[in-house]
Amino acid sequence: MTARFDLLGNKTATTFAKRFFSAGLVIQQSPLPATTQALVSLRASQINGCGFCVDMHVKEATAAGETPDRLSLVAAWREAHVFTEAERAALALAEEGTRLADAHPGVSDETWAQVREHYDDDQIAALVSLVALINAANRLNVIVRNPAGTYTPEMAAAVS
User: Would 6 be classed as within a structural domain?
Assistant: First the structure.
């Protein structure tokens, strides 16, 4: 599969990508644990069918020390015992926040209560922002059909 459009080969798209990446830095530098950020990004990307982002988040999480067992169980997190209660709350928020167009009622009060139990206000701000940002990134890549398997960390450095 080849991409329909080279987002990094176009001036307008590259300018947008740099600003988009800057927004991501705010989240990366937040007090939301990096592991949680990786799991949330991976789960939303799986739901949205963004192969490029799944590839990217698995590779980045692996490089950061995440285990293959946990990464392979993200899609089945409800049935897996390898995630903390805080991670489970974040994954639930990621799913409910991603499935807004699937006749889903949005983020449930139960999920929100679990998130409030495990995260402070700054972490929640980062978590909500991350769900919005990764969904936007998924849409960019799915629309242009960026293929999976081509991501390298140097790609992110080229945008920043």
Answer: no
Tally of domains in the chain: 1
- Are 131 and 29 in contact by the 8 Å Cβ rule? The answer is no
Q: Where are the alpha helices (DSSP H) in the chain?
A: 11-28, 34-48, 51-63, 68-72, 85-98, 109-118, 121-144, 153-159
The pTM (predicted TM-score) of the whole model is 0.93
Q: Provide the terminal-to-terminal Cα distance of the chain, rounded to the nearest Å.
A: 26
Q: How far is CA 109 from the centre of its chain?
A: 22
34 assigned to some structural domain: yes
Cβ–Cβ < 8 Å for 74, 39: yes
Could you tell me the residue range of the domain that residue 133 belongs to?
Answer: 11-76+83-159
- For residue 151, what pLDDT band results from cuts at 50, 70 and 90? confident
Give CA–CA dist 83/108, Å, rounded: 20
Counting every residue written for the chain, the total comes to 160
Distance separating alpha carbons of residues 130 and 124, to the nearest angstrom: 10
Q: What is the DSSP string of 36-72?
A: HHHHHHHHHHHHHT-HHHHHHHHHHHHHTT--HHHHH
pLDDT in tens, 88-135: 999 999 999 999 988 778 999 999 999 999 999 999 999 999 999 999
